[in-house]
């Protein structure tokens, strides 16, 4: 990714030096230094959150349509109760047997393809993807990895190497090949795209170990359709002896409304599934589901133990999340509220020249912002809309190669009133 | 590390196939597969824990002298209260300003050398070390790393490459050089040892980026003395343009009794400090403290953001841990209780031929187990003592190149009665 594109993607991020008047922001900059990444030209200090709403220190309330970690709703009472109950009784590691840990893994496996019999719990999606890539390499005795051109898969050294959206200078290792994001126009060529990438790897002496893909292509700009396009790419990789790793950190846990996992919308059964963000509704936890024979091949070479991974408090949080999704019908609500949101945006697009393609599934939508005259991507207007929505009390973000796609990702509990609140604010901002 | 040594180190771990009669153990094996690492020939199912004690499903209570994660005591009420209060109000990420996060970082920085002005919060020590190595490489534009021969620094690809204790087959990259553990006999040659390692790296075309060391050398077998021996190695690395990364995941947070950090016992100021396990008393959190200019050099090349790292619940847990350590005088107690434990073990060593060197600081002790006749390391007897103590209701582990060092690491709140309880059980087991 070029420095220019990176700046565009960072456009709604705070740039040090611009606003240091706020002592809380100045303190944050002193503490995190160059690793500080605050949202918005004027960062927001948050003090509380509940359901779909966050509350700032100045008393303003914001409808959170961006953060997919508190996916069943901020501060959900059932998740909070589960964490508080367990943390007061026992918090230890997987070197002892603790019932709730296996109860959770059993519940998680009941949602996964039968072939993925083993689950390794980790702390972050980065750790899960880092492990998945090494398991794939051990299982295939190959090294090459295929990802999309603006993908993000984590922050460790290995996962950064397969995350083009994190590269500021250089960055692409020899064993990585990037394919274009599957747009509605090109998605049907996904299999050919993967085949070309394998040929390019082969030309550099690398057999393919894995195709690693987020099945909603979040940081590429949200590409969900047509359902089934993934299949040809997965088949191509398997024919060459490689594995398909479904990175479900973004689309997993009922987000897409039409299935519990993003890959299920495409009718494929992955060789490994990684998961993270919404898994514990904010309690730090993530994981990898794999076939026993693949995991065993990795464990012959290297030991793996994760101190915090699979602790009983995380398991209790994860179990509560699964129960809330079922009890509150959140998969169905994601479909329903997502549908209402998408058709509302569709109506506005007919009246407003700057709105291009509206994509996505369930409560994960991408809206291209374009120049009305030329139809070309308009990152400045995208930034203007995001900041305008912030002034209206609505939080969203941006994605895509050009940084010109609005990323809309509210909690799965979004109500009809909240959908309409979003649409009202959105209409005022795009008309303004 | 050879497969033989690895098996010795795993000696108190459960081997699949040995005891599958217990349905809870069989279920765990089905769930975690080859990644399952359970303690003891007959694994323990835990149901509760408080202070220094854990309780199993069969009603037996165990004095936990092994797990240094719940370092201020299992289920500590102040940490539990802090987590429950914060998780019910707000749990979000560092893209917003949240007061408790900066209050925590300020409190942590008050315990650290002044030069380490920036703190990046992560989920695990593995993530912290993975980032630290990359920051060191960016800051030095060099690649080589020096670690001790049985070191453990994490479970990501990059940190596994610098963790000889995790290598089952092959594993040592070209850019890694291992130095012997600093035994009481060899510690004074630590500087020469590091210089030789740098020459070996140079011969393979690598300048040194970092010396990465756990200043209590936990997995090497616990080597704490003489205080100050680290200094010569640190100086040698700096003269060659490299950095010293202090991995405080094991000795940090008052464990050694004589200082808040392990490196402080040696009078050195590290270029980076990584921390983890005891930081949140079990709440998943870890971090890296670095000089602003080093972090900035890394952030010019690659972006870094950690979704769960620095969440307000972790910050609240971490702040409670710092307060409990201060309020309950746990650094002083680690010194006092550790002293009582060490002298008790010393008395027993005079009466028992199998006890060799007793090393360590505060509540982190290593005891070599040797054959009475030859004085050689005795891994079988070590395993026998660990399993014998389990039968006495006391949990400890093993470490060291030969797997013949008892690793004793109780919570910092250990009382006089608990020290004596340990010593009584220990005496019965070594006499038996």
Automatic annotation (TrEMBL), chains A, B:
GO terms for molecular function: pyridoxal phosphate binding; transaminase activity. Gene3D superfamilies: Aspartate Aminotransferase, domain 1, Type I PLP-dependent aspartate aminotransferase-like (Major domain). The keyword Transferase applies. Coiled coil: none annotated. It comes from the Bacteria. Its cofactor is pyridoxal 5'-phosphate. InterPro entries: Aminotrans_3, Aminotrans_3_PPA_site, PyrdxlP-dep_Trfase, PyrdxlP-dep_Trfase_major, PyrdxlP-dep_Trfase_small. Pfam families: Aminotran_3 (PF00202). PROSITE patterns: AA_TRANSFER_CLASS_3. Keywords: Aminotransferase, Pyridoxal phosphate, Transferase. Belongs to the class-III pyridoxal-phosphate-dependent aminotransferase family. PANTHER family: ALANINE--GLYOXYLATE AMINOTRANSFERASE 2-LIKE (PTHR45688:SF13), PTHR45688. This is 4-aminobutyrate aminotransferase.
